Model the fold of this input.
Amino acid sequence: MLELEFNNSVLTAHLSGELDHHSAAVIRKKIDSKTEALKPKTLKLDYKDVQFMDSSGIGLIMGRYRQMSLIGGNVEVTNVPPHLKRMFSLSGIDTLGVMK
Amino acid sequence: MKCINEVKFKFPAKSSNEAFARGAVSAFIMQLDPTISELSDIKTSVSEAVTNSIVHGYLGKGGEIYITVKIFEENIVSIKIRDKGCGIEDIEKAMEPLFTTGGDERAGLGFAVMQSFMDSIKVTSKIGKGTTVTLKKRITKNDP
Done:
């Protein structure tokens, strides 16, 4: 579901499996407690192994974007698989400049 | 149009049941041999509707969610998701993309996703009585 890795002030969250309102709440808490403790400059959200997601997967990015702005950091979203592309383009999340 | 198969189920409005709800609907629809993309569209839309009932209909306080899935002739699937929650005051406003009363973690995309991923969506709601969302999609017929 979630693997966290911290390196050179970059916190990477490898997300996997199904991302919905239920699992996103658990993931959010874990990421937020780590960012609070480590104060990374960049939070990388890796979507490579996400098999399913509803709009909670977008809410997760928006919420982390706000959190990271508060500590002067930024968010990068990486490896969005083809089957999730439609949700991402529908959301207009690319206007936040987080898509890498 | 003739209904040729139907399933009904209800479950408590707990977020831990979201995966069950979309899984159960997709298991029933498998008999139509949908494409992976059609199945994913339906699972995503059901997940959005069920989440709306849990977060907005019942305001996280729980209740029952009722789902009816019907298969009609010509591979048309209809999915009705009903709650007996607080209802929606202004359906038009609720359906606007990015509008949400769900706080910072909700993207306000639920209805936009259902509209985009399904062929049609109908929402009926009564304050204090609840909300019913009916989603329809035609599954591509894979002629042998």
